[in-house]
Amino acid sequence: MNPVQSLSIAVQKLFGRQRLRRIILGSIPFIMLLSLWRMNTVNEWLPPVFIPPMASIIEAISILQDECTGIGGILTMNPGCLFTNHVLSSLGRVGLALILGLPFGIAFGVLAGMNRRVSNVLEPIGVFANAISGIAWVPLAIVWFGIGAMTTLFILLNTIFWLVFFNTLLGVRSVPSVLENSVLTLGGSRWNIITQVYFPGALPSIVTGIRMSMGFGWRALIAAEMIGGDSGLGFMIFVSASEYKIEEVFLGVIVIALIWMFTDRSILVPIEKWTVQRWGMVWRPS
Amino acid sequence: MATTSPSVERPRVVRSARWRRFTKGGGVELLIMVLGILAFWSFLSSVIPNPSRYLPAPLTVLFSSSDMLWKGLLPNYLGQTLFRLVLGSVLGLAIGIPFGILLGLNRTVSDIFYPILNFFQSISGIAILPIIVVWWGNSEKTVFTVILYTAMFPITFNVLAGVRSIPRIYVNMLRSLGASRLQVVRDVILPGAMPYIATGARLGIAFAWRAVIAGEMLVGKRGLGWMIFTAQDTDHTDEVILGMVMIGVIWILIDRFALRPIEADTIQRWGLVQR
Asked: What 3-state DSSP class applies to B177?
């Protein structure tokens, strides 16, 4: 065996044959796209105002981070670190909205789902709130809170809360009442039913709701930052576009995509899969 | 009265059945709830200072519509928004379904294109809007591109999942009976993927609806999104709330009376092929 063969076997053992194949095949369009981009820069089919050269995007980071003082400056959101400030303020808003929105959404959803009469009333209201959640609230939010962080946070919170609430409500309602009655018969309290029956039974639906709310919420956040924000990635790309700094727009768009890809693939999808595997397919009495 | 003729009795029975269905479905509670919300809303707007700016009363919102109806603005905006939604969704379906089927037919092809599609899906349509505005300016083309971009990806991914969900044996059976590739697509793949296509279409159109509103606000094309945005600019908060309620109600109408029935029918007709 020559060294090339043994190396290729070692690589295949490390990554796995199928995975390696998928990685290589999947990278083909990316490589083609990047080389097309590079060719465009060299041959100037489209002027750099429309498609900036790749190097200028990297350069844009250093220009935006020009007056930044190291990692300490990034973490304390020093006004010199423009780029990381925008990224961090978007992410911080998502985190804050999750901390505020998830517990309330799940708690109200469970409470509303417990009683069939209440849930019948609240379901259409949830449908209506979901239908106007997100971007349609922006003008009213601007009137109430002015342009700034509060408006964007409100939009995000609104989107997350209603989707999580609605999915929890549906999940709790789908739990068969036989299970509830059996726990009651065995002497369980109301609280036992909530923690042992409703919550686990609704968990797959809740997690799906969280994933959906993040998908809708992240999109709504970007749009809200464009219209009614004064910081964040959406604000950054919108302002850069109006100043025709297209390389900053490309940078922002790529970062938006990477953040969402990472969140969805390495956090939300695994959690959803695990939950459905562990808690899903509740036995239904026929 | 002891004797009542059957011809009088019958409509009363029908009404009571409908009434019972209404009350059983929580209709009375919902009515009370909605009235309560409206009462609370009007109470709030009578208490706060400067209600016409912050929270106009429900009646003010209602009356603001008559003015816009009189001028013919409301139907105009509504028509433009719906036109954008319909054209964008139809184009999204027309591109997304064949593309999803093509990807689903061959594992190598789907392995090649899946990651890059996933990457572009992660860029929400509204995020590429600034780039497209730089390319084409504030034109109608820009709005349509954003709507199409937003609607296309959920549809493509769902069609792909649908094609993957079809058991191999069906395809193999038709192949061994001498069917051509085109026949396999027409008779197995398309019907088998139908429930997923319907689900994907509903999701894609839901995303597209939000993209229409946001696109109109940002690009400044006349429509419902533009209406609430400019009304906020000129301090007509009653028109903002009117527009919001209309956006919500129209989406519920589209969802309840067009998309959901189609999805349910498709699943009933084509779904659960494998057992």
From this structure: coil
Residue B138 makes CB contacts below 8 A (sequence gap 6+) with B219, B220, B221
Render pLDDT for B202-255 as a digit per residue (tens, 0 to 9): 889 988 998 899 888 888 888 888 988 888 888 888 888 888 988 999 998 998
Q: Do A33 and B116 touch (CB under 8 A)?
A: yes
Nearest chain B CA: its distance from A123 CA (Å): 9
Q: Provide the ipTM.
A: 0.80
Which residues in chain A have their CB less than 8 angstroms from residue B157's CB? none
- 């709701």: which residue's tokens? A209
Contacts of B50 in chain A (CB under 8 A): none
- The b/e string for A24-45 (b: 16+ C-beta within 10 A; e otherwise) is ebbeebeeeeeeeeeebbeeee
The tokens for B66 are: 């008559």
Distance, in Å, from the CA atom of A194 to the CA atom of A172, rounded to the nearest integer, reads 9
Q: What is the DSSP annotation of B12-59?
A: HHHHHHHHHHHHHTTHHHHHHHHHHHHHHHHHHHHHSSSHHHH---HH
**Max alpha carbon distance in chain A (Å)?**
78
pTM for this one?
Answer: 0.83
Domain ranges of chain A: 3-45, 70-279
Our measurement of the distance from residue A128's CA atom to the centroid of its chain's CA atoms, rounded to an integer in Å, reads 22
Check if the beta carbon of residue A255 is closer than 8 Å to that of residue A173. no
- Domain A70-279 falls under CATH 1.10.3720.10: yes
Alpha carbon distance B107, B105 (integer Å) = 7
- Residue A230: strand, helix, or coil: coil
Chain A nearest C-alpha distance from B126 (Å) = 6
**HSE-up of residue B244 (Cα within 13 Å, Cβ side):** 24
Phi (first) and psi of residue A51, to 5 degrees: -125, 110
Q: For B60-270, which CATH class?
A: mainly alpha
Q: What gap in Å lies between CA A113 and CA A101, rounded to an integer?
A: 18
Domain ranges of chain B: 6-47, 60-270
Dist CA A281 CA A275 (whole Å): 10
CA distance A1 to A6: 7
C-beta of residue B219 within 8 angstroms of C-beta of residue B143: yes
CB contact at 8 A, B155 and B97: yes
Read off the pLDDT of residues A23-80 as tens digits, 9 standing for 90 and up: 888 899 999 999 999 898 888 888 888 888 888 888 888 888 777 777 777 777 777 7
Who contacts A206 (Cβ-Cβ below 8 Å, separation ≥6)?
A106, A109, A164, A167, A168, A171
Per-residue 3-state assignment (H helix, E strand, C coil) for B199-266: HHHHHHHHHHHHHHHHHHHHHCCCCHHHHHHHHHHCCCHHHHHHHHHHHHHHHHHHHHHHHHHHHHHH
Amino acid at A42: V
Nearest residue, CB atoms, A26 vs list B112, B135, B252: B112
Q: Hey, is the C-beta of A249 within 8 angstroms of any chain B C-beta?
A: yes
